[in-house]
Amino acid sequence: MTQRYSVLLWLTGGLVVLFLIAPILAIMPLSFNSEPFFTYPMPGLSLRWYEEFFTSNVWLMSLKNSLIVAVCATILATFLGTLAAIGLARKECPVRGLIMAILISPMIVPIVVSAVGIYYAFAAVGLLNSLTGLILAHTALGAPFVLITVSASLAGFDYNLMRAAANLGARPHTATLQIMLPMIAPGVFSGALFAFATSFDEVVVALFLTGSEERTLPKQMWSGVREQLSPTIAAVATMLILLSTLLLIVMLWLQNRAEKQKQRLEG
């Protein structure tokens, strides 16, 4: 009975996973279609849509903008999120729960609501239609992910190491950089990957804040769907799926490494 229940559970789980990834599995082969139609069966295979992406100034400029915004936003979000996590990890921090709730609110509030609020705030200071404004907005969206992952790493950190370093004459910033950060590095890198993925795939805030000259890759895909549906969009979507899969594998590896490091310290 137990074995039958286990098989049924695995079968149900597999069907649910297949249902969730079926749209992805359906769109990826279309990026290799030799004809500009989203139809099955495909008349032939071709790499023309990938070639069109890498030879189009519009697509390459949107890719460049996405990389600039994602890298800059990731650096800022990682720096600010890590500092916030270290500060909130201190037990003497007043109203820690309230501050945490405010900092992670971008993950809870609907993205459209956040986009409208950011739009009006940035309009007042002249940050619309600029990559700078989009970088700051994506920093606010990515920092909560860094805060959560670093806070989880700090939950298992032994603060006696910091006290021992202080007794040996190390200054607080020296102990933080040389003792704490190396030990929580997997959590920091995981948060940075989450922040990068959030910024690189984000489209709603980009629609509100950027103009035609600051188009990011997701915004260009959105415009392509509305204006001229082309298999090039399927090619871009396929590359984004592969990138997301790679980031997920790296995050799982970092989490596994952090678990092994924690078990080694406890042992």
Automatic annotation (TrEMBL):
It holds the Pfam family BPD_transp_1. InterPro entries: MetI-like, MetI-like_sf. It comes from the Bacteria. PROSITE patterns: ABC_TM1. This is ABC transporter permease. Residues 63-251 form the ABC transmembrane type-1 domain. SUPFAM superfamilies: MetI-like. The keyword Metal-binding does not apply. The keyword Transmembrane helix applies. It comes from Pseudogemmobacter faecipullorum. Its main location: membrane. The chain crosses the membrane at residues 7-32, 67-86, 98-122, 134-159, 180-209, 229-254. Belongs to the binding-protein-dependent transport system permease family. It is found in: Cell inner membrane; Cell membrane. Keywords: Cell inner membrane, Cell membrane, Membrane, Transmembrane, Transmembrane helix, Transport. It is a multi-pass membrane protein. Signal peptide: none annotated.
